[in-house]
Amino acid sequence: MANKNTQLYCPGCRHPFLFCLSFAIILVLPYLFFLDYAGSKEKFFSMIENRRTPLNDREDEPTLSTESTFRNQNGPADEDLERCNPSKAMLKVFMYDMPPEFHFGLLDWTGDGKSVWPNIQTKIPEHPGGLNLQHSIEYWLTLDLLSSRFPDRSAPCTAVRVDDSREADVVFVPFFSSLSYNRHSKVKPPEKISRNKVLQKKLVEYLTDQEEWKRSGGRDHIIMAHHPNSMLDARTKLWPCMFILADFGRYAPHVANVEKDVIAPYKHMIRTFFNDSSEFDTRPTLLYFQGAIYRKDGGSVRQELFYLLRDEEDVHFSFGSISKNGISEASRGMHASKFCLNVAGDTPSSNRLFDAIASHCVPVIISDEIELPYEDVLDYSSFCIFVRTSDAVKKGFLIKLIRGISREVWTQMWQRLKAVEGYFEFQYPSKKDDAVQMIWQAVARKVPAIRLKLHRARRFARFNTEDQIRSFKSFKSVSLRSHHPRIH
Q1: Dihedrals φ, ψ of 94, to 5°?
Q2: Based on C-alpha coordinates, what's the Rg of the chain?
Q3: Residue 159 in 3-state DSSP?
Q4: Could you read off the pLDDT of 297-341 as tens digits, one per residue?
Q5: How would you classify the pairing of strands 159-161 and 221-224?
Q6: Burial class (CB in 10 A: 0-12, 13-18, 19+), 206
Q7: Helices (H), 295-434
């Protein structure tokens, strides 16, 4: 018979209140911990989602102020971009004080012998204009650098000039190579070699003798060669540098390529379409082209398109040049057209694309090898139509494609053109997000890749001479003996 006094062991049974309280705490604590963790977790993921939230409602159509993503993530705030703040500039640039014959001397500027640079606060040397103007990036970029440290500069400065090359991100070579080609590529008796070739030879000698070039092998140097025929003699000797070009049409792939070089826009020749209130129906011409029709190299497609389109009643396809009233005629024609053809000529690119953008005439690009400025941050498909050359020359293909674009689609692209046109405007003083500032931003986006190349190249640089190798071996031998006495 069981003992009636026998009980199960229960330490808290003598104090039921304490037992119940302890039991409740044991149950509640994990729940509270879970709530706190869940709340923290929710905040954590909320923070991640907030970081992913686009700056505008449509991530695929960034606005003018947010399109350059590199600047937004790594550059100064908007208020700093309105006025130059050298301490917050995205890019530090060392510029060689080269003799005037390489830069403003080509504009017939003669200094007083005390400075290699003109005092642009007093007077800016004038550019000769004409066709020379379309490849004038060297002029605008140099002016921007010279003015980057003016105390009263009200314009933004993506790039600022520094005196110590070791503090610089890049080294700028102020050689006006396009102007040199345009004005001095012909031999003038009694000369036996053109001034353009002489300057290129001097340039190579000058650069390869500089400590900055020796230190980097030229990888961090910027050389402007926007005209396709500029730097013909020097380019293969200076290929490690970063070229600023119009396209890669006349360059070997190892000399110039999209990985290391920057594509810059042409300066448009026709006048900008201010206060454009035109509509689909107020632009009577469907498709417009005026320029050289018979071209060599890849430009033969122009001739084929001429024969395909010449009988279309609402298409303007004719020969044209800048002589006489050519620019004015082209301005009127583009302003009155819905679409403007940009067809490959002697090279993949032409100024016509940037004339079309300035006219708010939707570009139709037929150039399979074309490279476009700032395409890593700018989606050209939102305001340009791209057609493969093989398709464009098919009978009826191109005109059917263009006629099939609706009023609504054209209006969207026309509005987008008006939003992005400022990216392609060259001016002095430079303004926020104009062509000058956008080129500097494109250069800044190349800087990490330049640093990577330089750092990788320096892996074995400390021991690249026989004396250094012998010194290293001697040091290694002594070090081993000191740690391992048995080694003889």
Answers
A1: -95, 125
A2: 32
A3: strand
A4: 556 889 899 999 989 999 999 876 666 677 888 999 999 999 999
A5: unpaired
A6: middle
A7: 300-309, 326-335, 352-359, 389-392, 397-403, 407-420
* Nearest-5° Cα angle at 66, 63 to 71: 155
Q: What is the pLDDT of residue 263?
A: 98
Do the Cβ atoms of 446 and 165 come closer than 8 Å?
Answer: no
Residue labelled with tokens 């074309």:
370
Is the N-terminal amide bond of 429 cis, ω within 30° of 0? yes
Q: What Å distances lie between residue 357 and 98, 270, 350, 365, 384, CA to CA?
A: 36, 10, 12, 12, 9
Closest CA to 295 of 228, 346, 353: 346
Q: Which amino acid is at 19?
A: F
Residue 214, CA distances (Å) to 92, 178, 436 in order? 19, 26, 29
Contact 237, 204 (CB under 8 A): yes
Which residues, listed in sequence order, are joined to residue 385 by a DSSP beta bridge?
Answer: 364
Give the pLDDT band (50/70/90) at residue 296: low
d(CA 181, CA 176): 9
Q: Rounded to whole angstroms, what are the CA distances from 143 to 63, 176, 288?
A: 28, 12, 35
CA angle 305, 272, 154 (to 5 degrees): 140
Neighbours of 7 (CB within 10 A): 8
For residue 324, give every residue at least 6 positions away whose Cβ sits within 8 Å of its Cβ, in sequence order, or none. none
Residues 344-374, buried b or exposed e (16+ Cβ, 10 A)?
A: bbebbbbbbbbbbbbbbbbbbbbbeebbbbb
- Beta bridge partners of residue 319, listed in sequence order: 291
Global confidence as pTM? 0.79
- The token duo for 97 is 């004080």
Q: Write out the two tokens for 59.
A: 């991530």
Which of the 8 DSSP states describes residue 367? -
Helix axis angle for 352-359 and 326-335, nearest 10°, is 50
Q: Which of 372, 365, 369, 349 is nearest to 398 (CA)?
A: 365
What whole-number distance in Å separates Cα of residue 142 and Cα of residue 308? 45
Tokens for 80, please give them: 């700093």
**Arithmetic mean of pLDDT, 55-64:** 35
Distance CA 125, CA 108 (A): 8
